[in-house]
Amino acid sequence: MSDADRPTGASRTALATLLGTTLEWYDFFLYGTAAALIFDKQFFPSLSPAAGTLAAFSTLAVGFVARPLGGLVFGHFGDRLGRRSTLVVSLVMMGLGSTLIGAVPSYDSIGLWAPVLLVVLRVVQGIGLGGEGAGATLMSMEHAPEGRRNLYAGFPQMGTPAGLVLANMVFLATNSLAGHATFTAWAWRIPFLLSFVLVGVGLVVRLRVTESPSFDRARQEDEVVRFPLAEALKTGLPRLAVTLLAVVANSAVAYVFMVFTLSYGTKHLGFDQQFLVLGVSAAAVLWFVSIPLWTAVADRKGRRTLFIGGSVAILLWCAVFFPLLDTGGRLPALLALAGMGLIIPVTHCVQGAIIADTFPVRVRYSGTSLVLQVGAVLGGGLAPMISSALLGPGGSSTGVTWYLVGMCALSLVGAVALFRMVPESPVGQARLVPEPAGEA
């Protein structure tokens, strides 16, 4: 029995993917928090507050647009050369991009070049994260013991809320120690520069992980294909379309909750910045701790009931989320945020495994990256910018609520269609093709 096949080897891989994705999402969410609260003043000072916020969120969206490119590049090499090496490169790219963002001069120093450099580095971040999401899920899932694929595929998903909490805590701690004026002037750069140290720690851990047993088996059996993306597209447009539709709402809702809420709550509802950041972080802790519970349910009962039930729940909560915030009270606001922290992970925790099981091992990285990253662009990448544009006179959130409810309704339709098209196997997996012998 190889090290990868032992439970300890699988557990070490799962924890390594969790650490790596946490660090990558730390970098990505740090940018989102700074875009909501800092970048309009640093890089777009000549614009009105509303226009500056929209411009800052536009640079956030650029990173999402770059993610499919990263997914395609890393997916291609991940299917041809292996998951492990591509994940090392993606971590380095993400950390380098974040570190350099911390060194970009402000608009007052170099004028238009400041936002230009910001966008270029945001593209580097997006490419790096585009290669991370699918690869980390596959590494953990393909090492999983039999009957625990959903649980192990959920470990990299835990990196999303963990990265958010880490980014927000470092952001708040730096703000508190430096003072608001100093933080706004230059100390906001410290959390970005810290990425260099954190990525070094992540690399030490990630380099100790063994290659995916599934990929090793495919390579030994000469199943590696020259153009994996082209092969993955043979899955067919209907299956790919409903899979994409099923997952797009979770991304949109998550980014409105994690990013847009900070801007909206401080600028239109008068909430204290620290209160909102702490509230979102507390909700992210609920998100983090509930993922293993939901993935264990999926392994026992199947993904279908969990995913469709979660799709209904997130639609209903989106209908009340902004009305609760709009009361202006702290208790209703905390209830709104906590609800998101408990409901978002129901679908988020298994969507990576659902997408991965759409494709055979030899093209799984390319296919999974394509669906994940296009879904991220259509959902999360545009959500804060669309939400800002949909605010009505006086900052009314009604348009944003209808936008989120509509996105959730589309995803619910996609989820129902997906599970009707591909019924689950007895262990809660919906597969396109049989896996090679020995695949969990």
UniProtKB/TrEMBL annotation:
* Main localization category: membrane
Q: Which residues cross the membrane?
A: 54-74, 86-104, 110-130, 151-174, 186-209, 240-263, 275-294, 306-325, 331-356, 368-390, 402-422
The alphabetical list of record keywords is: Cell membrane, Membrane, Transmembrane, Transmembrane helix, Transport
The record, for Gene3D superfamilies, names: MFS general substrate transporter like domains
The subcellular location is: Cell membrane
UniProt cross-references to PROSITE patterns, sorted A to Z: MFS
Instruction: Write the signal peptide boundaries.
Output: none
Q: Locate the Major facilitator superfamily (MFS) profile domain: which residues?
A: 13-426
Q: How does it sit in the membrane?
A: Multi-pass membrane protein
What is the protein named?
A: MFS transporter
Instruction: Give the species.
Output: Streptomyces castrisilvae
